[in-house]
Amino acid sequence: KGTLYLVPTPIGNLEDMTYRAVRVLEEVHTIAAEDTRHSGLLLKHFDIKKPLISYHEHNKAAKEEPLMELLLQGHDVALISDAGMPAISDPGAELVQAAIEAAVDVVPLPGPNAALTALIASGLDTREFTFLGFLPKKSSHRQAVLERVATYEGTLLFYEAPHRLQASLQELYKYLGNRPIVVGRELTKKFETFVRTDLAALQQADNWLTIKGEFVLVVGGAVHGKVSEQEENPIAASDYVSAVTMLME
Ligand code: SAM
Prior knowledge:
By secondary structure, the chain is α/β, with parallel strands linked by helices. It has helices at residues 19-27, 36-45, 60-72, 93-101, 114-122, 139-149, 165-176, 199-203, 243-248, and strands spanning 3-6, 30-33, 52-54, 77-80, 105-108, 129-134, 155-160, 180-185, 193-198, 215-219.
């Protein structure tokens, strides 16, 4: 049988590709990639020429069989996603389960991941944390997730898309109360920014709609297992902040 390699790829900075990732991608028979055009550019950069099979959220059920077929025929397959670790807020978990069920070896490579990259520079507690990925689309589901973690004392990690950032920051404040938050934007890239503030302060920010980029939200845990209070005194007008100023400078 072949081996299924799980290969992380850079989250912005191509120098974060590991030597081992390059070697494994050069050696496997086939690379399963989330977006073959996007990954084609990465592979070109490292001069890797390999057959690519697309494996993404909407075709992963159908693509499992041909990929398992290759593995069972004795061919090594590498799974990559558009950025960071496959199977972390990206497709991969089902293929790993199928491989395990078929007694195919699964070999994970360490490498870039946006959540852990933000966490280690956040200044918040790194001893215990929970990664929640993207909050669910449905508002009642979001509420359920946030209520479930509202008394958790470890640090909370979220991914968020720019157009949902403001709404999510409002909901975090609504269900968790005021907490320290670190917004990590465009990590490893030219405009990498960390905003270290609290949720109440971010409620005052405007201009969210003009904010672009990729974001990780690192939120402090509950203190003594209690949902945090909201601010008693609304922030004075003089403390009014612009999201653009906070994130773009
Ligand atoms: N598999 C990836 C990983 O291991 O981090 C995550 C993929 S998920 C589809 C994409 C989300 O990860 C983005 O919306 C953003 O929240 C976060 N992300 C990815 N790259 C980032 C970066 N360079 N800076 C900040 N956040 C990033």
